[in-house]
């Protein structure tokens, strides 16, 4: 890997997401050698992925080069590498570019889509965890309308214009709102020869309310906002299968659609080599103690989505959200400094700063620990918070300018099929 050993202890971080970057910043002034490994050379701001899928933002504006984040830190190395396996006994990670020894290892590999073992759903549905997936979805949505314009088969046309989103967490809700706005504001202008009023957006939730992690008021309001926008919200309905054409459910409701988006579950992106019931939970997250440390391997830590700290309030770990990841990264940086100075580590405590989701233009719901609000003000708060947490001044400027432009013009200019997506290619790969 072309990385020389220095006299400082080597800390290897796997993953340059919210947790990994937060840890790296905290380690920047310490006397350690840090090697950050990621399969992508950029940090991906996942909360805005749905805007890439729906042509509201260019992918570049939510990605940031990891090397640029680290450029001012001495003793830091970045390698573009996929970690294939961890060998805790050998204190090494095996990657697609070689093997690397560590003194301390921090696994910050995030999460991946959970299909709960359903291979057919996995093969035929669309996911939205990465920028390439968001671009695939953008292409598919636009390709569907191009095809709908050409077909004379009414059922096929309807299926091409139907969108089924499974899972009504923030991702599903935000995507449904954005698709509804496209249907209302953009499709009639782009496809005057197509009756785009027939396009249907279905949001399916197995439980009895949407945004179930948020307050009841937020759920009710978000549902009302979605219904205003013309989204069909289905509750207490569980999707059982999708074969690329028909979505079946646990009732007699079926949907004919060319596009099913699976936003119904995530699991930890654990890496081969960390295994066993006492180390890995049922949701594939790595079980760690309050110092983010693995039980059997005191020099290995996990933070962020992949880590599961079990507490009374959160028996299955903290929510897979940006704030727990950022806070754990920061705390572990502080703890590693203490560990290296032979001082006791401090347990991680999560400061819940709340949750929010936008449903569309002027519509959002915000739950702060002591204050809950919905509507236009919530929407401005949502925008401000997302701009604030985006990495890089240029990205913030571009996103801000895009949002102002889209707001004034009722537009989403990035509706481009740059890299055509064909479903058969996905199942072949
Ligand atoms: C569509 C979407 C919307 C979301 N919206 C919100 C929101 O509004 N608010 C909120 O708080 N949270 C939101 N989240 C969740 C939030 O993005 C995650 O909780 C957060 O990214 C977790 O940070 P992390 O550092 O643990 O993982 P990530 O940010 O996912 O980073 C993991 C990194 O590890 C790398 N990696 C993984 N495996 C390997 C490997 N084997 N080798 C090398 N590199 C590897 C990945 O490339 C990635 O860069 C959203 C997530 C998605 C997908």
Automatic annotation (TrEMBL):
Keyword NAD attributed: yes
Single GO MF descriptor: NADH dehydrogenase (quinone) (non-electrogenic) activity
Source organism of the structure: Formosa agariphila (strain DSM 15362 / KCTC 12365 / LMG 23005 / KMM 3901 / M-2Alg 35-1)
Residue ranges occupied by any FAD/NAD(P)-binding domain in the UniProt entry: 10-329
PANTHER family noted in UniProt: EXTERNAL NADH-UBIQUINONE OXIDOREDUCTASE 1, MITOCHONDRIAL-RELATED, NADH DEHYDROGENASE
UniProt record similarity statement: Belongs to the NADH dehydrogenase family.
Enzyme class: oxidoreductase
Keyword Flavoprotein: yes
EC numbers for this chain: 1.6.5.9
Transmembrane segments annotated in the record for this chain: 376-393
Protein name: NADH:ubiquinone reductase (non-electrogenic)
Record keywords: FAD, Flavoprotein, Membrane, NAD, Oxidoreductase, Transit peptide, Transmembrane, Transmembrane helix
Domain of life of the native organism: Bacteria
Entry-linked InterPro entries: FAD/NAD-bd_sf (IPR036188), FAD/NAD-binding_dom (IPR023753), NDH-2 (IPR045024), NDH2-like_C (IPR054585)
Catalyzed chemical reaction(s): a quinone + NADH + H(+) = a quinol + NAD(+)
All copies of domain External alternative NADH-ubiquinone oxidoreductase-like C-terminal, residue ranges: 353-408
Cleaved signal peptide residues: none
């Amino acid at each position: 890997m072309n990385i020389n050993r220095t006299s400082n202890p080597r800390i290897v971080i796997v993953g340059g997401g919210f947790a990994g970057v937060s840890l790296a910043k905290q380690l920047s002034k310490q006397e350690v050698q840090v090697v950050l490994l990621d399969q992508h050379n950029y940090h991906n701001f996942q909360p805005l992925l749905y805007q890439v899928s729906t042509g509201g933002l260019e992918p570049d504006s939510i990605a940031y080069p990891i090397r640029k984040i680290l450029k001012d830190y001495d003793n830091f190395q970045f390698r573009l590498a996929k970690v294939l396996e961890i060998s805790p006994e050998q204190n090494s990670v095996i990657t697609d570019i070689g093997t690397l020894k560590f003194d301390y290892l921090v696994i910050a590999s995030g999460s991946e889509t959970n299909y709960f073992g359903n291979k057919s759903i996995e093969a035929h549905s669309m996911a939205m965890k990465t920028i390439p997936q968001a671009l695939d979805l953008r292409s598919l949505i636009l390709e569907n309308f191009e095809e709908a314009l050409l077909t004379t088969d009414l059922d096929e046309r309807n299926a091409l214009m139907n969108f089924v989103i499974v899972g009504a967490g923030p991702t599903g809700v935000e995507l449904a709102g954005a698709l509804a706005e496209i249907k209302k504001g953009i499709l009639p202008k782009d496809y005057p020869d197509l009756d785009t009023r027939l396009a249907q957006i279905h949001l399916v939730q197995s439980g009895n309310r949407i945004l179930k992690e948020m307050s009841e008021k937020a759920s009710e309001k978000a549902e009302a906002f979605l219904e205003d926008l013309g989204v069909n919200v289905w509750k207490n309905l569980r999707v059982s299968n999708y074969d690329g054409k028909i979505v079946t459910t646990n009732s007699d409701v079926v949907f004919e659609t060319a596009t099913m988006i699976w936003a119904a579950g995530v699991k930890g992106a654990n890496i081969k080599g960390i295994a066993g019931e006492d180390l890995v939970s049922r949701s594939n997250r790595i079980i760690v103690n309050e110092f983010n440390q693995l039980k059997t391997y005191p020099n290995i830590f996990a933070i962020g989505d992949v880590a599961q700290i079990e507490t009374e309030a959160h028996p299955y770990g903290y929510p897979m959200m940006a704030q727990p990841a950022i806070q754990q990264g920061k705390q572990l940086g502080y703890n590693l400094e203490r560990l290296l100075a032979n001082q006791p580590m401090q347990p991680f405590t999560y400061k819940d700063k709340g949750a929010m989701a936008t449903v569309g233009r002027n519509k959002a719901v915000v739950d702060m620990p002591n204050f809950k609000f919905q509507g236009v003000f919530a929407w401005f708060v949502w925008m401000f918070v997302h701009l604030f947490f985006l990495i890089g001044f240029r990205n913030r400027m571009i996103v801000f300018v895009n949002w102002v432009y889209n707001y004034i013009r009722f537009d989403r200019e990035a509706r481009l099929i740059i890299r055509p997506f064909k479903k058969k290619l996905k199942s072949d790969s």
